[in-house]
Amino acid sequence: MSDINAQTCNLNIWYYLPDEVWGKVTKIYESMPGWIGYKNGIPHWFGQEDEDVFIMASVEPSGLSFYAQMSNSDWSSWIESFKVEATKVVGFEVGEPEDGFV
Fold this sequence. Notes:
The chain has two helices and five strands, in the order βαββββα. Helices cover about 30% and strands about 30% of the residues. It is globular, with a radius of gyration of 13 Å. It has a single domain (about 5-100), classed as 2-Layer Sandwich (TATA-Binding Protein), CATH 3.30.310. Helix 1 crosses helix 2 (about 70-90). The termini are far apart. The longest helix has 19 residues, at about 70-90. By secondary structure, it is of the alpha+beta class.
């Protein structure tokens, strides 16, 4: 069994983007593996903070931020899938600002 680790990622999906873009992001949330819905307005996948494995997202001034607790390989696969799907849907290349995505 793989070790469970804390995971984080910040993406260049900015809080000030139009509602049209955020509507598309919501559809991506729902299409991703492990989607379980919103708790107190926060999207969750696989579980919630009191469980061993979960992913949650929040909109921050620094971009769309993910926090997860899962194995490195599962996390890498999931977040890469999210980036690919988001890039297809939102109309710009989605990635991490620290990697040059603006």
